[in-house]
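Example record used in the benchmark description.
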Amino acid sequence: MSEVALHRVLSFVVIGIGLAVFVALWFVTAPYGRHVRRGWGPAIASRWGWMLMESPSAVGFLLLYLGGAKRAELVPLVFLALWEAHYLHRTFIYPLRLKEAQRRMPYVIVLLALLFNALNTYLNARQISELGVYPLLWLIDPRFVVGALMFVAGFAVNQQADAVLLGLRDGKDGGYQIPHGGLYRLVSCPNYLGELIEWAGFAIATWSCAGAAFAIFTAANLVPRAVANHRWYRRTFPDYPAGRRAILPYIL
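Model output (structure tokens):
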């Protein structure tokens, strides 16, 4: 089997995994963050767990990209910059800003995320640096323009929402409080909404099966998580704003 064929098959595998995850997460909430609980085996400090499980997406992606024949071309370099802007922050900056140094996540969650991120990293790094065709004129193609603008907008939403969460002082229930400001006026998880917009934009900008598979998986993972977080907020805080939705303003 050629790498092109393998790449396409693995992209559909990611979509299949995403659909399975989407169904599973409506019944079992992943046990990390505010939903951490016993019964999932040994655990690691959340800060180091985040760094470990996200490392393929930051470091591995760069290494695979540098092995591609098109690594010096401008359009792939732009895609690299977009990807690394998200994952360098998610892997090395965000975890160090976490205030809950004592919080932990099960190793099984870290392992599953590590395996997925390794597969997803391979698919997208090889797409943009080896298998995809992105001439210089791609920079003015409507797909690139729309996708890149969506990515930047989603990144801004994600960063602002994370900043609000990280800036909250310790409150009830181990430090959690009701977040306010920005898109928190409309949804409980604008940080997740930002990621949905980012990776949908990346999929459009790269116009690839790999990008589409990642966008689908991201939605399959984050939408049920957002709904679980929304229910937790409403259950925990009697004065939680009634008009907020979970992740999609006015809809869900």
